[in-house]
Amino acid sequence: MSKRRHPGEWVMVAPGAGFLATEDWKRAQIDPSSRREPCYGGCDDMYCTEWSDLSMAPDASGHRAALYHVSECQMRDCPQEESREQKA
Hints:
globular; 1 helix
């Protein structure tokens, strides 16, 4: 079963997840205004939600690339040390 996520939450996004996918795990934040939709990923969790908009952690220049339509089954928790850094 996928973990239920919330707007503004930082997560790790799986390689190939959503539109504008990346090749490796990336840290991203669920946009506070992101819409919830049913999961189209084909997972077995009937409560899995797809989030319409996420922003990846800033790169060296401060740019935050976007990811679109990522399901909770394609997300994992951020490592503890990264989660604490984002709250500071």
